[in-house]
Amino acid sequence: MRTLALATIAAAAHIAAPSIAAQPPAPSTQAVQPSIPGPRTCFWARGPHSADPYINIAYPDANVFYWAAAFTVPKGAELSFEGRFPHSRYMSFISYDERGRPIESLADYLIAPRGKGDVNPYVAGNRRDSAKRDYSVRVLLDAPTTQRAIGERGEPESVNALHAPPYAGGQQMVLYRIYLPDDATGPAGGVSLPEAVLTLADGSKLKGEAACNALQTTQRLALTPDAVGVPPFVYRELVKQEGRPDTWPAQNPAQWFIQLDRESLLGIYTGQINDDARRSEGGFYPNLDNHYIRTVVNRKHGPIFFVRGKAPTTPNTFGGDAEMGDGELRYWSVCSNQGISNTRVNDCLFDEEIPVDADGNWMVMVSRAEDRPRNARPECGIGWLPMAPDGDGLIDEDVTIVQIRHMLTAPDFARSIQRVERQADLQETMGPYLPRSGYLLTNQAESFFPCFAGLEG
Description:
Keywords: Signal. The protein is of the alpha+beta class. It folds into two domains: about 170 residues, Immunoglobulin-like; about 220 residues, no CATH class. About 10% of the residues lie in helices and about 25% in strands. The protein contains six helices and 19 strands. The strands form four sheets. A five-stranded antiparallel sheet has the order 1-2-8-4-5, with no helix packed on it. Strand 9 and strand 10 form a beta hairpin. It is globular. The termini are far apart. The N terminus is likely disordered.
């Protein structure tokens, strides 16, 4: 209607003053809504998910990009993904059910290269810069009969298949993830997104838009309300429990929780932890190759939350290293998140950018931007992450959730999150790798942890 009104006004002005040349209509003052950045295809249409300005939901790591595909394989047809291994720290395909619970992960090192001379760059010792890096993965409609190791790094295999059974009348869901693309390679790691290839019952093959149409990739999502976040009314009940302090469940010093099932995630607030639950499935579209610990932070205890511990070793890849390295973990990070209803990430620091001292220890401070200590910078040996101005994004502006992820632990690394069997074993199992934490005022943080960079001897 705004265009029509402007045209009417312009026409009236022209009739009233015919000797004056008609002027173009004034530009609209309505702000233009920017589009979501990043590559997409008709199959991988939902994404990229990451920190702002990408789609920020379900606690993405800020250094990671996810794409989701909802589809239905026609009866008698077969689906495969054909692509090139990206230039990145990690990639995977993971299938999910309607509640956002993971079914199966196909991690990068399990995928055999497609042809002679092709290289899987994620196997330790392999070249990461090979031009020949093709692969092909089959999508199976039945449920897996055996469970692949969760969060563990095993021997490279030639699996090349992902079980993605249908739910809710035939819908299937697969997420494609790329962790830490090499510098300047973009969200997709310098390659195109994998192509969906549909082989019909008569043997004919469909690609591109024809495959998307047959797979019904524009169908509405058939998800439960809690798939990407705890419903707001439930979250309010959790944080407003009678008899609890206004900082509940944040404690000082912080209490860390391993990620189990959804009941145990809510158990951070209720105290009900299911130690027998399957590991790592209680988040929101979690990655089965990661294990997580998290704590609820409340700045009413102090505007600066500091966390420090011993750093696991990982490969270095961000700078485009030519050969894949090894380490105690494939990847680890520290993230500042909003609440479990909002499920936004504020920002994350990944292993290569977290300052580590000569003894292998790291430290990160988390605060609002206006409270940031002047020594919370890499050259002073201290990383920094922001708290959101609106806190949990729903109820309490002082709440932040700090989360640490460990990916694909080495078989001989006994201190990873993956080795924690029960919540009560967290400290004993992780030892110095379990972070120590506390709250400070800004001036205390600057005084207690001086910056020695550039000081004279």
